[in-house]
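Appendix B, Record 12. Input sequence as logged:
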Amino acid sequence: MAPSRGKAPPGEVADGLSPAFLELLRAERLAELMVLDVGTGGGRLALALAPQCRGVVGVDRDARLIDEARKKAAAAGVTNARFVVGDVEVEEYAPFKPDMVVAYLCISDAIAERAGRVLKPGQVFAFVAFHSDQWKETGRASRFAYGEVGVKRLLKRTGFTVEHLAVERAVQQFETVEQGLAAAVALQEKWKADGRWFRYVKFLEEGGRTLTQAHLVVKARKT
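Logged structural output:
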């Protein structure tokens, strides 16, 4: 359910997962935990964690992606991960009995609220979210994006204490308008549909020569 991810910032491994985020998760006793991966998509985070966890459940409303995740799990011989079609912004998480809730570029107030309701004191909610500076040159923040202050307020309201919050940022720089356009060509149709492409072109024509990608990496514990 997450929006298009685009090219990963420097510091991310080939499959697009932040090493810093994985390190935060592996600091927990994963072998004892049932992990719920909300908005799992094709299952990349769930499958990365499965060998270290008691079990993993990946949930996404896109049945095509869930089928893809199941095929990947079967091909990799992963037996302790299952994938379920469901809307993580509508359905409650209690049926999955998670000890930890994780998400990768799939965050909303509704998800945090549901994580807050299902997790017990001491259990972890960890995620990577789009930062409000993501694609800031388009003049329009994604509805999936959060700033540091906003995400802290959300986590406090939903019963969590922040243990780690950092921004992973990559800023591409260009010498010409053409280079800037080429860097975003994969996003052209999406940005034309939501009005961002024309704002980005205007930014470049007025002398702008950057394109920013920024993610929030967060680990919080239920109080």
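Strands lie at 34-38, 55-60, 81-85, 100-104, 124-130, 160-173, 210-222.
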